[in-house]
Write a structure and sequence with these properties.
The protein has 3 helices and no strands. It is mainly alpha-helical.
Length: 50
């Protein structure tokens, strides 16, 4: 996985952009897995506190 990612962003110009996208997607997936994403909570439990 590391090698493929490095090869994909080998051009360097879009490496930073691709890395930021990968980080955002990973964060979002982790939040969804933990059930802590605001959008996920809003969709699943709109009246959790009220």
């Amino acid at each position: 996985m590391g090698e493929a990612h490095a090869t994909r962003t080998a051009n360097g110009r879009s490496a930073r952009y691709a890395n930021s996208l990968w980080a955002k997607r990973t964060l979002r997936e982790q939040l969804l897995a933990n059930g802590r994403s605001p959008r996920y909570l809003r969709c699943q439990r709109p009246r959790a506190d009220g």
